[in-house]
What does this fold into?
Amino acid sequence: MFQLFPYWQGSFDGARPFLSGLENERVIAALQHGLISNAELRLLLHLIRSPDSPFFKVPSLPYHSLISILSKIPSDKDSKVFWSSNLRDMLYEITHTAVTALVAKIDGNLFYDWTSLMTQVVRTAMDCQGVSNSVD
It folds into this structure.
């Protein structure tokens, strides 16, 4: 989980983030930073919006990263303290942008299976508690 959420200041128990056993300063830092930073999400959004970016050779990579993030956002009630409504809104914006970009790719490129990728993004977003349920 640390590979997916590298800036998380706490620990993980399997897929669940937790803070027990941490010093007070680390607990405060973990709660302030959350699971994933806005900078990380803005970078992912930029990569989706900039398909010709020289930072990756596989054009589907940002979409697979989004799928991975959406599928691993903890959904249990106790973990909701680690992600905010701002995170939820940003994930929604990234998902919406990704689907819009994939629709354009489907219309313009028949040589890559963008339709399957779009289906994966939409299904994962619909199953993601971080996007579909209110955290306020």
